[in-house]
Amino acid sequence: MARSTWRLLLSLLLAGCAAGPPQGNLYRDLGGEPGIAAIVDGVIVKIQADEDVQELFEETDFDFFGEKLRLQLCEVADGPCVYDGLDMQSAHLSMDISEAEFNNFVQDLIDVLDGLGVPLPVQNRLLARLTPMRREIIYQ
Ligand code: HEM
Questions:
Q1: At what angle do helices 120-130 and 99-115 cross, to 10 degrees?
Q2: Ligand 1 pocket test: which of 137, 138, 140 has the largest number of ligand atoms within 8 Å of its C-beta?
Q3: What is the pLDDT of residue 23?
Q4: CATH number 1.10.490.10 is the correct assignment for the domain at 27-137
């Protein structure tokens, strides 16, 4: 094998090490369609039990909301879905959601993921994709 080919192989190997352990597809790591459905069901149970947000969700059709959230999480996790709901800013317009309410939502999600036994590194990968949405959601 030519010296340049060895050098290329070595640099690819080193780049792989620098990137840490290989990560699979997040959708698959979350348990695919049934895994995401369980996460969304868990989040809805949390929302319905949370008196602080009950007013916001007073007129919500939870079947519709659940379907949109399923599609969104699936797409965000690189699953085979296309989210067809509102963009995050429009979806939360005029709700004036505070930072604390946003953090509360994220904590609810973490509790659900814990309850489902989703490994911490997988949880972190999902949260890293959702938390940047914060700026489109709070104080709209
Ligand atoms: C990363 C965090 C969040 C994500 C990914 C998210 C996602 C979504 C999605 C996909 C929808 C449906 C959009 C549509 O109708 O097309 C929605 C609607 C809504 N979200 Fe969020 N959301 C987040 C945070 C929050 C927070 C923190 C609150 C309030 C505390 C909230 C309250 C609502 C409400 C009230 C609706 C409207 C429900 C209805 O149609 O009646 N969301 N959200």
A1: 150
A2: 137
A3: 79
A4: yes
